[in-house]
Design a protein that fits this description.
This protein is α/β, with parallel strands linked by helices and 800 residues long. Helix content is 50%, strand content 8%. The protein contains 32 helices and ten strands. Strands 1-6-2-5 form a four-stranded parallel sheet, with helices on both faces. It has a three-stranded antiparallel sheet with strand order 4-3-7, with helices on one face. Helix 27 runs parallel beside helix 30. The protein is elongated, with a radius of gyration of 37 Å. About 4% of the residues have low confidence.
Length: 800
């Protein structure tokens, strides 16, 4: 009973060749591969005639946690070669890693993510020893360009060294314990035949220790000499002794499906976290060897640059080839490595100074402003291959449902087809909802050109255009984790978008309007709960007021999207109003007018007036809060004025709402700026206080009264006329800002009353007609008076 452990680097051609040779030489009874154990019953599906790369996409969702994970495979992935070669050799082939829904993968979206970040100290030491810039260059130097003789021993030594400097986290320890249980079960079932175990090199030393097979790899392709005994390991086993796959939690939704993958998704330069960078280049290494790959990269880079009209001569190509060959020799590489070719190209084709290191000296996506030659080199290395699944591959229900709905609604046109949708038409509205659901799910194929941008945008048509469907199949499979239909999946996706304390007002506003566009009203209790919950956590009164205003407007007046008087918006209106009352009462600040906050106060007024039956906060509580804010000396003056207006608008007994004239006199004592800010707040809520005649009664519709309008105008006129010139000039901007809340017709009425008070005949429009800045006019008058005083001092007074 014996096991052979091959520690590999994911997506390494050298490791893939080693796995294939070892299977041929060893002829094992079992081949155990790091991968999702829940797929063991579906290996025939995985080994259909797919065009690689493909990935196993796994998802998990319960009330507390949602997780997704990918296990990608390409032609030169050692795991893929182990599966195919093991099957061909007649071995029992099994995946032995935990399913993606296990807590060990709670923070991991890529099953094959490298552990190099955890053993950076060892790789940095090796990089310094071998005089290379990065772990990728180190790997090429040690394994990809060296002869295959002794490869297994070099891998053993490398992974023993790097694992010796690292401590596995709790997730890795759980995974390794589970994989060790599989190894022990396989060895017990194999009899005298060997077992081959193919895992990431980081796990190999731990698995040797956990299974009692601590000896290094047998270079002759034979077996290790450790003996495993099957025993209690903390995992449940079936009747034959094999570990069971841990089941998802009760009530959770979980599963795994195959999805097409692409070289771009595999490329470290695009942000991929595992294995080799430049998958297009290493595909050529796998198919034709390092020499052919190097020559092919030189040719492709030159072709790409010439296609983009970057001048590259034949002599440049010769220079790049010569430099690459020279660097290969200088660095002691028996065959050209990727960095030899890239450095040769850079040296021959880039003549200007670079303001950053070349990207292949490190890892991660290209930064903005990268040199165009560097961009083309990286793109050429990455390749553009996109995988395709075999037609017989099972897919989640969403894939078939979307295809059926698109065809039924005539939305499956060729790329470039344009659709104009009338949102007042029932069929077009259904088309719009389907397209928005696909947009929310990130499904390619259609782009929105125009349409309403927010809930009260008076636009009733949309334009969409069919676009490329590249990537649609993979996106639909992944979106299938959210639900079986577009409506169900979009509702869950929107709920997840709003989950978490990081959701801001803009995110929630977009999610709310997306829910309206998708026709989510009354559909998803979870979406309702998430939106209402996070609306109640926002801290910016102005942004929250925008959400309340939009939601209330749709709840009251929508005749397009079908959300009027519905529960989706009702919950948002309730929580937003309650939260705003609390935020406004605690607001503090300096001088100035916060217009978004004033609009938020107006939104609270409208919610209490028109949707009081939705609110958990009683209108009397809002009235009391407004009265407290209006008299709070620490509250900003604009908010105090708005609260005074809010109290007058909502107070059940008009006489209890205070006298505006007295309030104006009290505020004016704090200065003209304070008076202007206070008036801005008042006018944002109660403009009629200035424009209605005295003694007016409260209208039946509940609009603000103007019973004290004349006295308020008298008070303001008297206060302004009594101001000294310097105080008037200082306070003029704030006063002008306050009156911007009045539309032109109402300003004209105020001007007419001012003329009447002074007994002056004329058109009130004459006071409003000037296009000059009133502040500039006041300054000019002050300058004239100063000049007149100066002339009088020297007896140079002008003739009247």
């Amino acid at each position: 009973m014996s096991a052979v452990f091959l520690g590999v680097r994911h997506h390494s051609p050298a490791c893939a060749r080693l796995v294939g040779r070892t299977v041929d030489e060893l002829r094992p009874a079992h081949v155990l591969v790091e991968g999702p154990a829940e797929m063991n019953g579906r290996l025939d599906e995985l080994l259909l005639g797919h065009e690689l790369p493909v990935a196993v996409f796994s998802h998990y969702r319960d009330e507390d946690r949602a997780a997704t994970s990918w296990a990608p495979l390409c032609d030169y992935s050692p795991e893929w070669v182990a599966l195919r070669a093991g099957r061909a050799a007649g071995a029992e082939v099994r995946f032995i890693d935990l399913p993606a829904w296990h807590p060990a993968f709670a923070e991991r979206t890529n099953r094959y993510a490298d552990a190099e970040a955890r053993y950076a100290e060892a790789t940095d030491r090796l990089c310094r020893h071998f005089a290379v810039d990065s772990p990728d260059a180190l790997w090429d130097r040690l394994f990809e360009v060296e002869p295959d003789d002794g490869l297994a021993e070099r891998l053993d030594a490398y992974f023993a060294l790097v694992r010796g400097d690292a401590e596995a986290d709790a997730g890795d320890r759980s995974r390794e314990s589970y994989m060790a249980a599989w190894v022990r079960a396989a060895v017990a079932a194999a009899g005298d035949r060997p077992v081959l175990v193919v895992t990431g090199g980081f796990h190999q030393p731990a698995l040797r220790a956990l299974t009692g097979t601590g000896q290094p790899h047998d270079s002759g392709g034979g077996t290790g000499d450790g003996v495993c005994e099957h025993g209690t390991d903390g995992w449940e086993h079936d009747a034959d002794g094999w570990p069971l796959v841990p089941a998802p939690s009760d009530g959770a939704l979980a599963g795994s499906f195959l999805v097409p993958y692409s070289f771009r998704q595999l490329d470290a330069f695009a942000g991929y976290q595992s294995g080799m960078p430049s998958p297009g280049y290493y595909q050529q290494v796998w198919e034709s060897g390092p020499e052919a790959a190097a020559e092919g990269l030189l040719r492709v880079v030159v072709e790409r640059l010439r296609a983009r009209r970057v001048p590259v001569s034949t002599s440049d190509l010769i220079a790049a080839r010569s430099l690459a060959q020279g660097l290969t020799t200088l660095r002691g590489h028996p065959r050209p490595a990727r960095i030899d070719v890239l450095d040769g190209l850079a040296g021959a084709l880039i003549t200007d100074d670079l303001d950053r290191p070349l990207p292949w000296t490190s890892r991660g996506p290209l930064g903005a402003g990268a040199h165009p030659v560097v961009v083309e080199m990286v793109s050429a290395c990455g390749g553009d291959r996109i995988g395709r699944l075999h037609p017989g591959t099972p897919a989640p229900p969403l894939v078939h449902d979307v295809a059926t709905r698109l065809a039924a609604l005539s939305l499956d046109g060729v790329p470039g087809t344009s659709y104009r949708l009338d949102l007042t038409d029932a069929v077009d509205l259904e088309r719009s909802r389907l397209l928005h659901r696909l947009r929310v799910l990130g499904i390619p194929g259609h782009g929105r050109i125009s349409g309403p941008e927010h809930g009260i945008d008076p636009v009733f048509t949309e334009r969409w255009e069919s676009r490329s469907v590249a990537g649609r199949e993979a996106a639909l499979v992944e979106a299938g984790a959210y639900g079986a239909t577009p409506a169900e999946a979009a509702a869950v996706a929107l709920a997840e978008r709003t989950r978490g304390a990081a959701s801001g007002a803009d995110d929630l506003a977009r999610a709310l309007f997306d829910a309206v566009l998708c026709g989510m009203d009354g559909f998803s209790a979870r979406l309702l709960g998430e939106l209402s919950s996070h609306v109640g956590e926002l801290k910016d009164a102005g942004a929250l007021g925008e959400i309340l205003s939009t939601a209330l407007g749709l709840w009251r007046h929508d005749r397009v999207f079908g959300v009027a008087r519905g529960p989706l918006l009702a919950g948002v209106v309730d929580r937003a109003t309650e939260r705003l009352v609390w935020l406004l009462e605690g607001a503090r600040g300096g001088p100035g007018v916060d217009f978004p906050r004033l609009r938020a106060v107006a939104a609270v007024r409208d919610a209490v007036r028109h949707a009081d039956r939705l609110l958990s906060v009683h209108p009397e509580a809002v009235v009391s809060a407004a009265w407290r804010i209006s008299g709070d000396p620490q509250a900003p003056f604009d908010l105090r004025g708005a609260a005074f207006g809010l109290h007058r608008a909502l107070a059940p007994v008009p006489d209890a709402s205070g006298d505006p004239a007295e309030a104006v006199r009290a505020v004016a004592a704090a200065g003209t700026d304070a008076l202007g800010d206070w008036l801005a707040g008042l006018f944002a809520l109660a403009r009629d206080e200035m424009t209605e005649p005295a003694g007016a009664t409260v209208p039946a519709d509940g609009q603000e009264t103007g019973r004290d309008a004349e006295s308020l105008l008298d008070v303001l006129d008297g206060l302004v006329c009594a101001l000294p010139e310097d105080a008037f000039l200082a306070g003029l901007p704030a006063l002008r800002q306050a009156f911007t809340f009045f539309p032109p017709r109402e300003r004209e009425r105020i001007a007419a009353r001012l003329l009447e008070r002074r007994g002056v005949r004329g058109s009130s429009r004459s006071l409003l007609r000037t296009t000059e800045d009133p502040l500039l006019i006041a300054r000019a008058r002050a300058l004239e008076e100063s000049v007149s005083r100066l002339l009088a001092r020297y007896d140079l007074g002008a003739t009247p």
